[in-house]
Input
Amino acid sequence: MNAGIIILVVAVIAAFGFILGRRRALSLAATSGKKLHSLPGYYGQTVALFAAVPSLFVLIVWLLGQPLLIESSVSGMIPDSAIPDGGARSLVMADVRRIAEGLDAVLAKGGLEESELSSMRADFTNVRTRLADVGVALGSEVPTEVFEAAKAYRQDAKTGNLVMTGLVLALSVGLALWAYRRISPQLRARNVSESFVKSLLVAASTIAILTTIGIVASLVFETYSFFKIYPASEFFFSSVWNPQFRGGSELGILPLLWGTFYISLIALIVAVPLGLMIAIYMAEYAGPTVRSVVKPAIEVLAGIPTIVYGLFALVTVGPFLRDWFAQPLGLGTSSSSVLTAGIVMGIMIIPFVSSLSDDIINAVPQALRDGAYALGATQSETIKQVVMPAALPGIVGAVLLAASRAIGETMIVVLGAGASAKLSLNPFEAMTTVTVKIVSQLTGDTEFASPETLVAFALGLTLFVLTLGLNVLALYIVRKYREQYE
Output
């Protein structure tokens, strides 16, 4: 029984528990003549929560832990001789998992009996053909040790799933019956239900925190592995980016940081003035009718997929800048350039600047405006000398948040700016960013033990630190601003 069916069964048990628990509470109140402590629905919720939450928690933990335990057990079955030269045990284990899944597919298709599988051997049976029939392609003949490990992996997974199904369903039914028997008019069912809800909310926030820690930890560990085989000084201070998967790579981050900074700067030059003017108009001049139409229309820009912006840069903006500016001025002949990506990216982040700035300007107390008008200031003078200085900390925070969004963009850069890593001031030349090179270094059949692949994690950690710093600074400024006026 797969996890989806188990969740459905647990949901049905919880639903029945809710109905039966509510009925029992009403029945006990009627027969005993005592008033229920809580509403009848809370008693049903108590049974449903005991039936669902602990069993689903066990299911999640089991699904996360079982593959790790099986892999650690099966990995010992593969001798070092079965690992190809230049390969890694982790890649062999990936083949083991694929073969195990393929065998399940062959059994489900009816091309093999369970009894035949136990005696099936890689050296006597056309394993590759059978697996290819179900969409599992293998590049070479399957070593006997790998095939036996796949059979063991599949058997352990099958046994584990059976135990998991029995344990989860037994726990769900058992706790539902226990909660059902505990129902009485004196039971503080509302408190029990609210404690469960509070625990679920805490668990949800904990998952978010643990996810962040996991992301950072994965970057840190892989970056540490990279710096063990590649000098950190060359990575941070070299001005040459020239990865060669045959060895002898030069992996300097400076050209990538320069491209990221240059494109983001142009994007902010486009987005900040336009976004601020839109925000001022929407907050100070536009009427309710115009605001209700124009603001959602502008925010539609934030919902357009970035690949669409990239195509717009590739087909429209890039050729226009090349034909009307770059070639006549003798500055370039390519439609892919820093300016192309920067302009289109600036258009994309206009809603980030305008919407946040609009909300911040509206948060400025009306008393400041009234005081300026009372002293004889015009509306434009009030905006320039009173409203904007008061809203400036929040606007700076909005700009920094937009900057962090621009720094992390990939598709617009790929299609609009090209993939050339260089240090140049010419905005009509093709350049690239950190995010683009992260994608390119992890694309294709690569070995995770090589510096050319591990460098992607070092790039990712550097980018993470930069954007995290911008976000923290922006949140600090916005929080300080809000404390001033709330």
